[in-house]
Amino acid sequence: MTVTMAAALNTALRDAMREDDSVVIYGEDVGTLGGVFRITDGLQAEFGAERCFDSPVSESGIVGTAVGMALYGLRPVVEMQFDGFSYPALDQVISHVAKYRNRTRGRVGLPMTIRMPYGGGIGAVEHHSESPEAYYSHTAGLTVVSPGTPGDAYSLLRSALAHPDPVVFLEPKRRYWMKEEVELPVSGEPIGRALVRRAGATATLIAYGPMVATALEAAEAAVAEGWDVEVIDVRTLTPLDLDTLAASATKTGRAVVVHEAPRFAGYGAEIAAALTERVFGHLAAPVLRVTGFDLPYPPAKIEHHFLPGVDRILDAVARALEY
Amino acid sequence: MSVTTGRAAPSGAAGESSRINATWQEVAADGGLAAPAHHDLALDHTQLRSLYRLMALSRRVDRQAINLTRQGALGVFASSQGQEAAQVGAVFALDDEDWLFPSYRDSVATFARGVDIVEVLALFQGSWHCGFDPYRYRVAPQTTPVATQALHATGLAMAARMRGDPIVALTLFGEGAASEGDAHEAMNMAGVYQAPVVFLVQNNQYAISVPVSRQTRTESIALRAPGCGMPGVRVDGNDVLSVYGAVRAAVDRARAGGGPTLVEAVTYRLEAHTTADDETRYRNADEVATWRANDPVQRFAQTLRDLGVLDDALTAEVEAEGEELAARMRDSLFGAPAGDPREMFEHVYATPTPALNEQRALLDGELSAEGDA
């Protein structure tokens, strides 16, 4: 069947709630409305307001109470309505969600999921197009996941909900309406595994979330240049599957990391450094980064100049090939 | 109004009781504090003696923790002295299945809940961030980012209510923490969802050096309760019976489905903020002396003597138990080994990541090199 990413996420939540009555969902507008992107559509109707309910506008409160619920044995799945509104909860995320297992010497794990739409490209107003993955990936104790396809959205969200540790689940909002032929339920590669989305030999593009589709598009365009580009979908930002990335970079000798977030101290810097440390001798060129610019996310009418596109990616591949 | 008793008294000695008075102020319909109202407590003599024992032992272990810090066995310590009535009285109002969410200031509340004092002090010793099993004692780890634990208490209480379990969560925080957004978010959400949680604010007059007048323009933190749709209570935090009575009434209401309560216990931190603090820079000795004259442990002892519940034999017995505890603290905490540093890799995730395994191997190498040196 043809499934959008939004529908795949909705189905994943519904299937998990049917199987496990400890799964509860709450956040701003997730109940009656079904979420501003309708990811929780129909869940309150099916499972009742006890298991899918609206919260006050209170992001720290949403995440902090989820800590208490997980401590008591529930599996809370909370939604941050937008990336830019997840910041009030950062203290709870960094000080408690990420650290509880460690603080308690392994005695208390928190099986909870924090979902949020992230990234740009939908013409949104200020604070609705952020890419905060570096903050979360830098925080030890969190598992950070971002799907790039509808099928992965389903299987990774199911994995997140069954995970023994807290998962920050970053949903590429510009891909919510992306379609894929896939039969649900689908069981994909587990959390912690990157995937080769397109095999190639000339160079490696490394992307996640919203940039997977863009990287694949660039790889197809590269055929006209005579380049056979491999595309890797990182899928799990923490823990990073460096083995898969390193194997590809070893094979092609050239790696380019792509993300929407600003470059400086961004997630791509970690990948570039890790690959350089691991497979320096196999690289024919430095690991390059194709990213947003080091500035606050721009207004909607000019955002397409900020976001990495096919041309910016191919320019980087060309530079990598010049070495 | 009659308040039900705390933990069930052991059989045999139970039965003997005195009419005991507790006093607190409720936030009135007009939003101000009502006149103090008196309430009868139904605590029997066995319970009163248990309460005395916990108060006296709390003072002793707190004094010993300060001593051990000065001698280097603990890295730092945040004393509860002066706040024993607030902490012990509140914890005494809980039943076994209830949960406590304390802050770093609440070591004696944690101790009074039954956590081994040596395990409590792991935080300050620096052996681990939390030295006890939260599930064993139904006590969450003491937090240092203030007021964050109030949300955990609300969340646990919401979960218990969803499950239909008659459990109450008690969280302790200070008047400084009450200024944090998390304190408001916790109380507001508890009000919205009628979570069975009790918020006990220990107003000990100072947030490190900053007086309560810089935390609030109002006369009481309890006045925030109506804004969150819950009853508010102000109580003399140095009167253990009044604290117990006020908190027990709130716990009973929460358990019966009546939702949360905010209780402000007005008290005083007799020691410096921590052993690393210099209190002479922000408060004078006269002020401290005035509050020392209102010492909650001595005050309760006097009340019990007046009631004929406390005699020299019991005092001596508790004192001896305190000395044993203090000696055990010294023996356990002095020169305690640091533990295996490799353990730092074990509890980050249920399963260590490849990166953690790599870094653990690095540390292994460093440890071997040290061993060879």
Structure report:
The complex is a heterodimer of chains A (323) and B (373). Chain A has 323 residues and is an alpha/beta fold. Chain A is 36% helix and 20% strand. Chain A has two domains: 180 residues, Rossmann fold (3-Layer(aba) Sandwich); 128 residues, Rossmann fold (3-Layer(aba) Sandwich), CATH 3.40.50. In chain A, helix 8 links the parallel strand 10 and strand 11. Chain A is globular and about 60 Å long. Chain A starts with a strand and ends with a helix. By secondary structure, chain B is α/β, with parallel strands linked by helices. Chain B folds into two domains: 332 residues, Rossmann fold, CATH 3.40.50.970; 32 residues, no CATH class. Chain B is 43% helix and 12% strand. In chain B, the strands form two sheets. In chain B, strands 1-3-2-9-10-6-5-4 form an eight-stranded mixed sheet, with helices on both faces. In chain B, strands 7-8 form a two-stranded antiparallel ribbon. The longest helix of chain B is centred in the N-terminal third of the chain and has 26 residues. In chain B, 50% of the residues are buried. Classes of the chains: A alpha/beta (323), B alpha/beta (373).
Structure described in brief:
The complex is a heterodimer of chains A (323) and B (373). In chain A, 36% of the residues lie in helices and 20% in strands.
